[in-house]
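Worked problem 6 (solution included).
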Amino acid sequence: MVMNTDMITIILASIVVLETLLIGVSAYLIVNLNRKSLIYEAWLLKYRTKLDDVYAQLKSVDERNLFDRDDDVGFVFSELVRIMSEFDKEMK
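Solution. The predicted structure is:
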C-alpha cells in the first residue's frame, strides 16, 4: 500500500506539533525549576548567615565563661554550643 502525500504531510505536521509541545513544556519546567532553585539558594544563604551570627554570639559568651557547667543553665548552654559546633562543621 502506497501512502499518498496528504497522509505523509499530516503525519509530519503531527510530529512537528508534538515536538513543539515537548520543547515548550521542557522549557517551562527548566525555567520554573531554575527559579525555585534560586529562591531556595537565597533562603539557604540567608539562613546560613543567621546561623553563623548565632554561633559567633554563643562562642563570645562561652569565651567569657558566664555560665557554670555544673548547674542546669550551664549544662544547657554547653550542649547548645556543642550542637552548634557540630552543625557548623557539617555545613562547611
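Discussion: The first helix runs from residue 5 to 63.
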